[in-house]
Each structure stands twice: as C-alpha cells, then as structure tokens.
Write a structure and sequence with these properties.
Residues 257-289 are annotated as: Disordered. By secondary structure, the protein is α+β, with helices and mostly antiparallel strands. The chain contains 15 helices and 18 strands.
C-alpha cells in the first residue's frame, strides 16, 4: 500500500460539543491544534439558489449536527468536515492538497448508511487520496497501548462502555448509558436553582467541585459536632487554674501570646473538603459562594456507569478473557477531569463486584496517585466472593485495576488526560498510513472499484 508522511496526515475527532483536529503529526505527539465548536449555520438561498451552510451566522439558525454521539444532521456534519479540510488546505501549497490522508474518529452511534455517505463525501467532494475510520474506543486503546481492556467513555449526554479484545471492539458486549456529564449539571441545577446554566457548567469545571471519598468526608466539615465546632480541646481557651497552680503565670501567658502571634502570621491553608462553603468565579467574572452542593451531583451517573461496566464485561463470550478487561479499565471523556471522579468509580466497582475482608480497604490498590484517601498501588489482596456472585464461575473478577497512562507524552500532561482518545487517534494514524500493513486504510483507486461500501473492508 502507498505510504504517507506524518506531515500529510489530518486527524479529525468530532464530538457533540467540540471537534478536535490536527494536521501534521510531530515526532512528539501534541494536543490538537484545532479545537472548534461542533456547529454550523444554515442559510436560505436567494431566488433559485440552494440552501447552504457556513461557519458564521445568528444563533437563530445554528445547527448542532451531533447529539449524544449520533449524527442528527448529516449534511451539516459533512459541511463541518469540509470546512476543517479547507482550513488546513490553506496552510500548505496548492499542489500538496491532493496528498492529504484523513483519519476520522467515529462513534458507535453512527449508522452504516451514514458511514458510507461520509466515505463517499470524503472521496468525491473533498477528494482525498486515502481515508480511514477508527472507533473512539479503539483510539483510547491505542493511547494506552493496550490490546485487551474495557473503555468507559463519558460524553455529554451518554456514556459508552466498550470491551476490546486483541484490538478488536466487542460490538455485542458494548453498552450505552443514556447519562453523561449533562446529568451532573441537571442535578446541580436542582440544588442550586439560583445559578444559570453556564454558571453550573463553570462550577463543575472549577477547583472547588470534587467528589469526596469516605475518608475525606469523615475528616471534612461534615464531621463537626452539633455546635459547629470540632470535638476536643477548644482553641484559645486558657486553663487559668492550672497556670496558677504551676507558679509560672508570667511565662505561661507569654507563651500563649507568642502562639497567638505565630498563628496570625502563618494561616494554614484549609482544604476545600474542610470548608463549609467555598467560592468560584464564573466565566463572566462573577463570584459565587457554594456550600456542600459542590460535593454532589455525580451519584446517579457513577451508579449507572458501575452497573453498565459489569453488564458489558459479563457479555464477553470467552469467560477466560473477562478478567483481562477487569484488569485494564480506562475512563475517558470530559468530566473525568473532576477531582475524585475516577477514584470514586474505581471504589464503587470494587465495592459492587468484589467482597473484601475487613483489612482490605487499607491494602486495596489501583493505578491512582492521589492526595486523598483513595486507593493506591496496583494489586488487590485475596477476596471473598459473596451475594449473587457466589458459584458463578468466571463471572466475578479476582482483581479490578485501572490502566496507567504512559508517561512519554510530556505535552499531554498539562493538557489533561480526558481527551486521550485523540492522542490514540494520532498514534493510530502514524501506524495506519505508514503503509506497512495492508487493508488499514482505503485508497481512491479502491474506492473507485467498489464504492462507499469498501469502507467495511478495512
């Protein structure tokens, strides 16, 4: 097969809210250089002109072609792809435009007909020489360098649970949960009705919004006694009788004064979890004070995810391969950047699918590094199976682990790991368009021979 240089490759990863793209792949893969809203604007043609789309317009005629991973307006989506290709084409010489190879990250929610129509548009309208499509879950597998795993992809309005075995998506085991990051917003809106929708989103993305572990809750302000003060010796109270009895009145008072002065000079930083209220700044620069509501809103989403992970893995036909997925779970998507989100999903998975002895929680481990009292390490100790899982050979995991991300992509550390599927798409594009393996992408000549259905031959 023909090969394409890294600087000739265009990677496009569309999402319901934003679309990421990168033209030209550097040796050290970097975050996407193009991040645009997934929207276009419709316009009514004058006289005998056809209706058309553009990248600018009024909010009254805006179109969002993707919703919950589904293509709800295919013509608008095709225009979005053409717009991205045109944008990158303007950065290179005209004679080099015909050499751009395109990799598109797809959703399992796209129909076969939609995928074939996209293929036809890419070759006949945009006129590229090479094209391929990879599922988003598989891109996540490439990013982690794993061939057997379970991908939890949390989107805006849905979450996909996808088992992958030998780099092949187990379509029959995939599950879609009709809950995503927007369900967090909905719960927060109920508890904080005075905040507008954009302010709820800003709160969710702020540093004060987090999910507390059980240990963190016990040490937080929730553990205060009924008077609102911590139990034990009260700060600032002097035992006068003890001082007089010691005969060191002057020295004792001097020591107390010194302690008081030192306390005012160095005020300790109080963790967010130990504050009764905290403030965040919204995108318009306004400050808002929020109470314990900042620790809530994720319960329903996490419960649905944990249940779906078990159901998806249990649908893998080869019972002996299920443990491979339990040992390599990855969680990707926008809201995985919330403090404590991944840790809480892990803790709930262990709680629901593994019954531990009493000492387990102090020994339990995963691939996390966290300042909070959350699981750390990589292995779990011997377990005792219980409940409905007893006697179901191969149904119950002996261990549950979250896969650890590779550390040789320094530019991604500051960007965040929520969008690692795009990194995986870049890794996949490098390998696919190298030409070393037959049948990994579709050429123009192959398309001309078979037509749009040839996309299923790769």
């Amino acid at each position: 097969m023909p090969s394409y240089r890294d600087e000739q490759i265009l990677v496009i990863s569309p999402g319901s809210e934003t679309t990421c793209a990168q033209f030209g792949l550097a040796e050290s893969l970097s975050p996407p250089s193009i991040v645009i809203p997934t929207r276009v604007y419709s316009h009514v043609g004058h006289l005998h002109e056809k209706n058309y789309f553009s990248s600018k317009g009024d909010e009254s005629n805006v179109i969002y072609p993707l919703k919950a991973g589904k293509i709800v307006n295919l013509p608008a989506f095709l225009y979005l792809l053409k717009m991205i290709h045109k944008t990158v084409s303007q950065t290179i010489l005209p004679n080099a435009v015909s050499n751009i190879a395109v990799l598109l990250v797809s959703s399992s929610q796209w129909s076969r007909l939609q995928t074939e129509t996209i293929t036809q548009f890419i070759f006949e309208n945009i006129q590229v020489p090479a094209f391929t499509i990879i599922p988003e879950a598989l891109a996540g597998a490439f990013a982690y360098g794993l061939q057997d795993l379970c991908v939890v992809d949390i989107g805006k309005d849905k979450t996909e649970i996808t088992p992958i075995l030998d780099f092949s998506v187990a379509d029959h085991a995939r599950l879609v949960v009709n809950k995503g990051s927007s369900s967090i917003n909905a719960q927060l809106q109920e508890k904080l009705p005075h905040l507008e929708a954009y302010q709820i989103e800003d709160l969710k993305k702020s540093d004060i919004f987090e999910i507390l572990s059980e240990d963190a809750r016990k040490s937080s302000w929730f553990a205060l006694n009924e008077t609102g003060a911590p139990e034990g010796e009260e700060e600032g109270v002097i035992d006068v009788a003890a001082i007089v009895a010691s005969g060191r009145v002057r020295e004792a008072l001097a020591e107390k004064e010194k302690e008081k002065n030192n306390a005012t000079k160095v005020a300790p930083s109080v963790p967010n979890s130990e504050k009764e209220t905290n403030t965040f700044i919204d995108s318009k620069g306004n400050s808002h004070e929020v109470g314990k509501e900042r620790f809530s809103g994720t319960e329903d989403l996490i419960t649905a995810i944990v249940q779906a992970v078990g159901q998806a893995i249990y649908q893998i036909d080869e019972v002996s391969r299920r443990q491979d997925c339990w040992d390599n779970i990855i969680v990707i998507g926008g809201c995985t950047g919330i403090k404590g989100m991944r840790e809480m999903i892990y803790a709930r998975l262990c709680e629901d699918y593994i019954v531990f002895r009493q000492s387990t929680y102090s020994e339990m481990g995963s691939a996390f590094t966290s300042a909070r009292n959350t699981p750390t390490g990589t292995a779990t100790p011997p377990v005792i199976y219980g409940g409905a899982h007893q006697g179901e050979h191969g149904q119950v995991p002996t261990t549950i682990k979250f896969a650890k991300m590779a550390e040789y992509f320094p530019e991604w550390k500051s960007y965040g790991w929520e969008n690692v599927s795009f990194l995986g798409a870049q890794i996949g594009a490098k390998a696919i368009f190298s030409g070393n393996t037959d049948g990994t992408f579709l050429t123009l000549s192959e398309y001309n021979d078979v037509g749009p259905t040839s996309i299923w031959d790769i």
